[in-house]
């Protein structure tokens, strides 16, 4: 299966660099480019890629607004690209529906891996960086009241949610709970459906915003 990607960044040199890295892979092809958020949405509507690699600051329409509109309308996964000094925008983009984020100085192998992960629908919380970003911004939110486990979740789904929010992969969760990875995949799908989340990133945000897990060393309430 070939993954079809649209690159959205207002810097041509960045797009060219990402295209070179991605198209060196036999299973990835860049089908379109955009220099602003409006072009990104138009390209995605027309080309129907498997993923959009989206910059945050762009003319006409920024990456946050573009992500919100694109994900809401098409459901096409968006992978945000930014720098640490734009973290506040990245957090807003994650809440708008982005499935993860990368830094612009990402290593080529990590860029390729991230594209594959997000295109597969997993969301990029397997990258500990995304979890750290969410945790950092959770510190700036009003302190949530300690929340009981969501009543709609089973005990095992709640346990899975806690471990997803700590950044563990399905395989790591399965090992900790002594079940098969396929069982964990089922639990993750079920809890996302019950919480109204699209992917693992949304589950992490849910856990932090409701005080189910606290920023820091992964302590839970």
UniProtKB/TrEMBL annotation:
Recorded GO MF terms: DNA binding
Listed Gene3D superfamilies: 3.40.50.2300
PROSITE patterns: HTH_LUXR_1, HTH_LUXR_2, RESPONSE_REGULATORY
Record keywords, A-Z: DNA-binding, Phosphoprotein, Transcription, Transcription regulation
InterPro entries the record matches: CheY-like_superfamily, NreC/VraR/RcsB-like_REC, Sig_transdc_resp-reg_C-effctor, Sig_transdc_resp-reg_receiver, Tscrpt_reg_LuxR_C, WalR-like
SUPFAM superfamilies: C-terminal effector domain of the bipartite response regulators (SSF46894), CheY-like (SSF52172)
Domain Response regulatory, first and last residues per copy: 4-119
PTM sites of type 4-aspartylphosphate: 55
Domain HTH luxR-type: 146-211
UniProt-listed GO biological process terms: phosphorelay signal transduction system; regulation of DNA-templated transcription
Superkingdom of the source species: Bacteria
Name used for this protein in its record: Response regulator receiver protein
């Amino acid at each position: 299966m070939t993954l079809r990607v649209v690159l959205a960044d207002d810097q041509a040199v960045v797009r060219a660099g990402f295209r070179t890295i991605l198209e060196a892979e036999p299973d990835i092809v860049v089908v379109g480019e955009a220099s602003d958020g409006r072009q990104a949405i138009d390209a995605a509507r027309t080309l129907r890629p498997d993923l959009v690699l989206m910059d945050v600051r762009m003319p006409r329409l920024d990456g946050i607004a573009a992500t919100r509109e694109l994900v809401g309308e098409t459901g096409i996964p968006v992978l945000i690209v930014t720098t640490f000094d734009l973290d506040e925008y990245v957090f807003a983009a994650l809440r708008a529906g982005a499935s993860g984020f990368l830094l612009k100085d990402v290593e080529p192998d990590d860029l390729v891996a991230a594209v594959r992960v997000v295109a597969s629908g997993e969301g990029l919380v397997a990258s500990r960086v995304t979890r750290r970003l969410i945790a950092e911004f959770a510190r700036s939110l009003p302190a949530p009241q300690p929340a009981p486990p969501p009543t709609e979740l089973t005990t095992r789904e709640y346990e899975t949610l806690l471990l997803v929010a700590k950044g563990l992969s399905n395989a790591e969760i399965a090992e900790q709970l002594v079940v098969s990875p396929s069982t964990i995949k089922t639990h993750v799908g079920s809890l996302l459906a019950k919480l109204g989340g699209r992917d693992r990133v949304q589950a992490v945000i849910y856990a932090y915003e409701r005080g189910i897990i606290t920023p820091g060393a992964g302590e839970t309430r």
